[in-house]
Amino acid sequence: MAGKCIALIAHDQKKDAMAEFARRNQDALSNWHIVATGTTGGRVLDACPGLTVTRMKSGPLGGDQQIGAMIATGDIDLLVFFIDPLTPVPHDVDVKALTRLAVLYDIPMALNEATAERLIKTLNH
Questions:
Q1: By C-alpha distance, which of 3, 66, 4, 77 is closest to 40?
Q2: 0.70 surpassed by pTM
Q3: Structural domains in the chain?
């Protein structure tokens, strides 16, 4: 994959926050190839129709694992994953595997908006 690639993922209760993050940072995100899990990618496209987003499967259907595989093959440069710490998710093992891979392969990772804002600004300069 040519250019910088960012993965965007958000738990159900954080999808509005991810769409708003994308809207606020639309100019910066236009410099990245964007991959996202299914529903999150749809929400980002609704908020920012001008962005190009490659949508994977939804997280519970294997999207987290698809993005994890991309991390392992060196295709992801930045992971932004808005995790909802208050709502249990049935595919929690997939979420942990994905974040473990990001740590293992030393991929910058933001798990909340404050960190995502700082990373997107830092990595675009």
A1: 66
A2: yes
A3: 5-124 (3.40.50.1380)
